[in-house]
Write a structure and sequence with these properties.
about 475 residues, globular, disordered C terminus, mainly alpha, Na+/H+ antiporter like fold
């Protein structure tokens, strides 16, 4: 009788535990505050697990969001994800201003031409690889060229986060930041041209002429740049003489939100506008270098929330809906990005290390690709296409795969190339983990880039009172 009674006691106990968990989930199911807390803590735990597995922290954030999201446990349902829509815009604004701050005029004079060559070659190579690959497997020409244009876009957020986590610096990082900054602007422009040709192919070009479709993305980029220039100048005037870090944080964060809000409202690019704002801020005065360091403490919670929230929007069911063309798209995009970056780096006479590893860091894909496929869905000429649903599934599945596999490959590229600097026993403090790369900082003693550049950079830093080892001086500014 004892042997029969044991399982009877355990079974209802397990059932009761499961029922209690489900009841608790249902109780907090619609609670926005609980959803935010769950995402942050799950992201924190996922990040720690990822670190133990030698993966990037953001991979843990993304997987944690995927598990809590609608496609798995549904702890954070769709309506909470929609309520948190401003979070990605805030995070992308701060990431964009960080990227823009890397483009110092002096550095651009040295590397600008190379970055332009590499960006163009890898963009064209990706477009051609995806278009040809899809056509070989039977995709209609309009579908092939539209997906080829979307495939050219990258995700700068993952790149910046991983480079910050690894304290990466050096020639590869300088080139990588430049390429991801230009790539999305180039991808938007390419998409405009391709849409015009595709509209003519499907016979729907009369509503919006080809010239309109071509000029629209150019107009979008120009307006974004103008807004970024104006915002950057105003921020410079407001922060250049301020000594209190809290005031600088409030001003810069406020203008990031204002810039993002204005650009979103008029349907132009907040990413480009905030990048230009960061560029203007750091180039208007050497004192403004401290602005990026003052913003560092905001990075950990914003990165955790942003990437965990990105994970909730991934749907594993899209993988099954893509078919053979989805696999072709993924493989062709990876081939185009890697070998395109290799060929571009070779044409620009970059180092062997940059040629070998740059392409691996360009695989993540997210926000811009989603934006482009949504534009396609909302465009009258393409809404009637019988394969529009399949195109959406292919892009979303690609984002799922590349957001999960892309960050580890980016981390591998930065470590294998010798760009990563975070090799401290016992780990680093949270603030240290998110220190952004500075392109104008001297390479470490282990770099093979030579001591001449180090001496020049050190002299420049000394002359402008921008010694990276003296945070007190930087926060106070120089007179």
């Amino acid at each position: 009788m004892e042997t029969k009674g044991a399982p009877v006691v355990q079974f209802p106990t397990m059932t009761a535990l499961i029922d209690a968990i489900i009841s608790f989930r249902d109780l907090v199911h619609g609670n926005l505050i609980f959803g935010v807390g769950a995402l942050l803590l799950a992201g924190f735990i996922g990040g720690k697990v990822a670190t133990r597995l030698r993966l990037p922290t953001i991979s843990g954030y993304i997987v944690a969001g995927l598990v809590l999201g609608p496609s798995v446990l549904n702890v954070v349902p769709d309506h909470i994800v929609e309520s948190l829509a401003p979070v990605p815009h805030i995070a992308l604004g701060l990431i964009a201003i960080t990227i823009g701050s890397e483009f110092r005029v002096a550095k651009l004079r040295q590397t600008g031409k190379n970055i332009l060559i590499i960006t163009t070659v890898q963009l064209v190579a990706t477009f051609v690889a995806v278009t040809v690959g899809l056509r070989l497997f039977g995709a209609p020409m309009p579908m092939a060229i539209l997906l080829g244009a979307i495939a050219s876009a990258t995700a700068p957020a993952a790149t910046v986060a991983i480079a910050s986590e690894l304290r990466a610096r050096g020639p590869l990082v300088s080139t990588l930041f430049g390429v991801v900054a230009l790539d999305d602007a180039f991808a938007i422009t390419l998409f405009g041209f391709v849409m015009a040709f595709a509209a003519a192919m499907v016979g729907g070009g009369e509503a919006h002429g080809p010239l309109t479709m071509i000029l629209h993305p150019l107009r979008e980029i120009v307006i974004s740049i103008v807004i970024g220039l104006a915002a950057g100048y105003v921020v410079h005037r407001l922060v250049v003489k301020r000594r209190r870090s809290n005031e600088v944080i409030v001003i810069v964060l406020g203008f990031v939100l204002l810039t993002s809000g204005i650009t979103i409202s008029i349907s132009v690019s907040p990413l480009i506008a905030n990048m230009v704002m960061g560029f203007v801020i750091v180039n208007m005065s050497p004192k403004n270098s401290r602005v990026m360091r003052i913003l560092e403490p905001l990075s950990p919670p914003i990165y955790a929330a942003f990437f965990a929230l990105a994970g909730t929007e991934l749907d594993i069911r899209t993988l099954a809906a893509t078919g053979v063309l989805g696999v072709v798209y993924l493989v062709a995009r990876a081939v185009g990005k890697y070998f395109g970056a290799y060929a571009g780096a070779a044409a620009a006479h970059e180092s062997h290390s940059t040629r070998r590893y740059l392409g691996l860091a360009l695989l993540p894909q997210a926000g811009v690709a989603i934006g482009l496929i949504l534009v396609l869905q909302d465009t009258t000429q393409f809404t009637h296409l019988p394969y529009m649903g399949q195109m959406v599934n292919i892009v979303l599945a690609s984002i799922l795969v590349n957001e999960v596999l892309g960050p580890p490959l980016t981390k591998y590229a930065l470590e294998a190339s010798g760009s990563a600097r975070r090799k401290r026993p016992g780990g680093s403090s949270p603030q240290t983990d998110v220190t952004p790369t500075r392109l104008d900082e001297a390479p470490s003693r282990g770099d093979s880039s030579g001591s001449a550049e180090s001496t020049t950079n050190d002299a420049t830093a000394t002359a402008r009172g921008d010694d990276a080892t003296s945070h007190t001086t930087n926060d106070g500014g120089t007179s």
